[in-house]
Fold this protein.
Amino acid sequence: MNSPSISVVLPTYNRWMYLPRMLDSLLEQEFRDFEILLINNGSIDDGKTDEICCAYSEKSSAIRVFSIAENQGPAPARNLGIQESTGEYLIHLDDDDYCEPNHLKLLHQLIVQQQADVAISGSVHETNGLIEPNHVYEGTYVWNRAETVSEFLKREKFNTGSQTKLYRRRLYDGIRYVPGKIIDDIHVTYRLLANINKAVAHGIPTYRFCKHTNNTTSFLEQDIVWPELLDEYLAMQLDRVAYISEHVPEECKHVRYAAWSYMISMVEKIHHGRGKGCEKQLDIMKVELLTHAEEFLHAPWITEREQKLMNALVLNEQNGGNP
């Protein structure tokens, strides 16, 4: 039996009310040469998720069902999907979203036509029927490794989310999701992109992120942080600076700037009362920003707003002024 072209990794956990919509959208894809690795990630919903998984596996031979006895977050399920996948290309999707019929077709055409290592699409956010474009733009873009990492750090045409990215499966050799993290993609995407040779992107919105109160990352919509989340992001920023500086040295200065850009945005958030309990992290970030103030303020990517925030919330305080 020939291996499929694309492996779709789809973990699910207590999302029986959303899962059929995603599965139906996959079975209605215009591109047909794929497998779905459907992973019941320890659901505790009186067997409802099990029933759906079994029913859909009977409906389509493309669906392979796996079960994890106890939920330990998304990372083990994603890693199981990577381990069991057989396609030349691989994509991770979420059980509470859904795809447009041309999602896999677009990504596959892009990656094959350009002989790329990753293909990237646009998407929309759907909230209570309201549609908001997310990285939607005209035209096809082709980048080498350094250009791809640069675009990733700019966050203008795509972000860390795996759902709009089709990778060559071999890129995951030696790269896995990290168990115990609050947000898993932020620890993996930069490593994958730092190892590609070519990327291709088109901003056609073929994926729908569905926002609701049960989203794993619904707290991001509330624009708040707490100590554990901020610790995870700050540790990731340090790891990302080191990794990209080693693997893509052309982007060393850019990735350093991106870390400071994140820090000043968090300093502002805490200043406005949206980071209760983060006083220790605030002090750490201010020391880092003050230490590297000259390089940050003269970085070619810095915005006027970031310069004003640095002056008001870091430099003025150091000089005894009031922000």
